[in-house]
Amino acid sequence: MTKQAYEDHGVSAGHAMVEYGDGVEATPDMQVERARPIPRISIQAFCEDPNFTNVLQVAAEDRRLSKAHVSIHMGGASAAVAHYQESPTPNLIIIESSLPRAGLINELDRLAESCDAGTKVVIIGRMNDVILYRELLKRGVSEYLVAPVSPIQLMESLSNLYNNPEADPVGHVFAFIGAKGGVGSSTVCHNTSWTLSEALKSNVVVADLDLAFGTCGLDFNQDPVQGIAEALASPERLDEVLLDRLLTKCSERLSIFAAPVLLDRDYDISADACDMVIDVVRQNVPYVAVDMPHSWTSWSKRLLTQADEVVITAVPDLANLRNAKNMVDYLRAARKNDSAPHILLNMTGVPKRPEISVKEFEQALDLKIAGEVKFDSETFGQASNNGQMIEEVNGKSEAAMSFRDLALALTHRRETRVEKKSSPLAGLGPLLEKFKIKR
User: Is the model's pTM score more than 0.90?
Assistant: First the structure.
């Protein structure tokens, strides 16, 4: 499960794209390069327009720039030149300028006299000018964007500067959490992850962060000696070699970072340690599924706000509806530039149990339900007892289809189904049957 895992399955370093399985394709919104997390760098911006200042502030608060240190100044290019005559330059300088071509190039030439080697420069200009763009590239400018720009456009451009083919790949993180304890979030996480690895033919790691009571080992019929607790205890020691030793391989493409499930120790997860461990894992595989306990702590909030996608599992009762709404509202406010969480209704249709309908759930959350898994004690019980996934037990079950749909939705893929063309005489079947000659 190292960087080679990307190349083994059609994923080039720097781009967490995969070779699709049979009948799976990318949806249109994934054809565009998406902004990826930016490393721990210092960014200093020099603005002229208050509107661009607001764009920068929104971007600075986004999860993708959570590790970067962003400072904003006014004054444009001339202020930048004056500032760096007395101060060292940061990793990245962003300059907004309304100067004409000659004036802007002159200011950049002055800036170059005090700019440290290795500093990247991004210019936000007013002119869509090819000659200006070429002159800027000659002077080592990393990117030129024509105003106005949106926060996501700015983040995509900055992301592309630090996620290039020569850099380490950055995988996607999917966080799974229950709206209430015992709603089956772990089962959803494990089945969706297994389906993802099979449908997209891509490497997946499941990280079980329910350290005391996690079921990842049980569900995959594994009994690992080491796991994620060792990595969290000394996150600074975690590298590709140690990661390979701590992971337990469950199938050709799926490995688990299992929880110890021991009660003779205390489990106090540090938010920083959790960040470091997940960062190392996502540098080595295209997809990381985090199985989270139903708790609300500093590390769980940070992980939920920084994940690429969030899945909330709920059962159709009032307590789950209340908790799911609170979580959705929080995540919407904290993840303004991301899609809303995916809500999966689990264990619906239990005989003689009053339930809140899917429509009522959607109205209360102002969000379309991503999927519904109906109550099926026989299939789920058999899978649990055998240490298998639902699709292994009954690939044609409704639950297996729900997990497949969720896996494709998380990765913004869709399944292509080729419809069989009906014969021109198909509708004449009953009529021809009447005239069939009896022997």
Answer: no
